[in-house]
From TrEMBL:
Upper taxonomic lineage: Bacteria, Bacillati, Actinomycetota, Actinomycetes, Kitasatosporales
Source taxon at top rank: Bacteria
Organism whose genome encodes this protein: Streptomyces noboritoensis
E.C. number(s) listed in UniProt: 1.16.3.4
Quaternary structure (record): Monomer.
Domain Plastocyanin-like: 56-166, 225-289, 357-464
The protein, known as: Multicopper oxidase CueO
Length: 465
């Protein structure tokens, strides 16, 4: 395969000898969670907004009192936040001043191949590339991250992610919480040495035991006693989150990967696998000022063990609230009749730490086309995780898809009824997803979105012709 091409030696090996920080020594809820910085374009011409970023390493405080070197867009950790409008183009020039090649992918974006950030479309150190995003899709919770073949996993782990909110007028008219009451939160895990530097090792699920929200370890966030809209992003390489409020309260999930759901879902748990998003409204108006309530993660926590904290909300004030969550948020397009069925099988080597990953029993090779799709066709893909113990998820570039079935049961309610680009597959699970391939022709990838698995080869190429 192409796994060795143009790839520098990973910088992590020497560091793997370092001693891990003891996570219990990191104070909980001692730092304030930042709101990602919304960037103004460098210039606007007609309906196109132009941005430029320099990918660079900077030092930042993730753990109180320690400096950590991270890889960033323009020094932002968490990443910068681009707000774009449906129908208005965004052009981003990315200059690479990192010690690694990069390729910047707009996750969930409907974009031409030349701007998709495919794994071998590399920006070498010192180089730059301009990406054009037509934004010819409705409201969506997108993000951008490195996708350079075999090094995306380390680059993302070291910070190379950013937020991209695509808004449209029908969404605006709904009156959902907005302005300071609408913000993205990137939730992930990480591993640190006792100097506060990140330790990256491939497929290192167990080592990554510090949880970050918007780039801080276990932060707090002060809120008013009113409704907030949080766009939750799972930017962890491999960890899945099933999030709950510590008092068991319900929240309203209003959207996911591909924007708003048809109707809000009232739920006491929010599931996001690596790369997935959940758009959630939490109403703090029932809490007296002075109340603290945490987001906790219940995924992979054995029965009887308390769930692990993520983030603490502190209700510190009251505020007027004219926002609402309408009972009807959107009408999704009717599902066209599919004309093609395919099977996709996901697997990693379960019994060796440095195993390979496979789609349809093949390791990713960028020179190979694995599926040819006729432009305009509607296809149903039956995707199976044949592993016994390892979860996966599944992400397709270019399209937003619909989940038809999970383990033979039609998906008719809940957050998976929305437009999706990434979907969970626990060991042994099988799902059916449907997508219509329009807009652009060309080669795009689909893969497990656990970045370490993708880097281990769990990725394939489709060509829309
Ligand atoms: Cu978020 Cu192909 O990736
Ligand atoms: Cu996987």
């Amino acid at each position: 395969g192409g796994a060795g091409l143009l790839i520098p030696a990973l910088s992590s090996e020497a560091q793997a000898q370092a001693t891990d920080i003891d996570p219990t020594t990191i104070p909980k809820f001692a730092q304030e969670m930042p709101v990602p910085e919304t960037l103004k374009p460098d210039r606007i011409s007609g309906t196109t907004a132009y941005y430029s970023f320099e990918m660079q390493e900077v030092e930042t405080e993730i753990i109180p009192g320690k400096q950590t070197t991270v890889r960033t867009f323009d020094g932002h950790f968490p990443g910068p936040w681009i707000k774009a409008c449906s129908g208005h183009r965004v052009v981003v020039t990315q200059k690479n001043n990192l010690p690694s090649p990069t390729s910047i992918h707009l996750h969930g974006g409907h974009v031409p191949e030349s701007s998709d950030g495919t794994p071998m479309d590399l920006i070498q150190p010192g180089g730059e590339k301009t990406y054009t995003y037509p934004n010819s899709q409705p409201n969506a919770n997108l993000w951008f991250h490195d996708h350079a073949h075999h090094v995306e996993s380390e680059n993302v782990f070291r910070g190379l992610t950013g937020f991209y909110t695509l808004m449209d007028l029908p969404e605006k008219a709904l009156g959902l919480p907005s302005g300071a009451y609408d913000l993205p939160i990137a939730i992930r895990d990480a591993r640190f040495d006792d100097n506060g530097q990140l330790i990256y090792q491939m497929n290192d699920f167990r080592g990554r035991n510090v949880i970050l929200a918007n780039g801080k370890a276990w932060p707090y966030f002060e809120v008013a006693a009113r409704k907030y809209r949080f766009r939750l992003y799972n930017t962890a390489n491999m960890r899945f989150f099933t999030l709950k409020l510590s008092d068991g309260s319900t929240v309203q999930q209003i959207g996911g990967d591909g924007g708003l759901l048809e109707a809000p879902v009232t739920t006491d748990k929010i599931s996001i696998t690596s790369g997935e998003r959940a758009d959630v409204v939490i109403d703090f108006s029932k809490y007296p000022v002075g109340t603290n309530v945490e987001i906790v993660n219940t995924e992979n926590v054995p029965a009887g063990v308390p769930p692990t904290p993520v983030l603490q909300f502190r209700v510190t004030r009251t505020a007027a609230d004219y926002s609402k969550v309408p009972a009807k948020l959107r009408t999704l397009p009717a599902l066209p009749a599919p004309t093609v069925n395919r099977n996709v099988v996901l697997r990693v080597d379960e019994n060796s730490a440095d195993g390979m990953g496979y789609i349809d029993e093949k390791v990713y090779d960028h020179t190979r086309v694995d599926n040819t799709i006729k432009y305009g066709d509607t296809e149903v893909w039956t995707v199976s995780n044949v592993n016994q113990r390892v979860p996966h998820n599944f992400h397709i570039h270019l399209v937003q898809f619909r989940v038809l079935e999970r383990n033979g049961v039609p998906v008719t309610s809940g957050p998976e009824t929305g437009l999706k680009d990434t979907v969970r597959l626990m060991p042994g699970e099988k799902i059916k997803v449907q997508a219509t391939f329009t807009g652009y022709r060309g080669k795009y990838v689909y893969h497990c979105h656990m970045f370490d698995h993708a880097a281990m080869g769990m990725m394939a190429t489709m060509e829309v012709v």
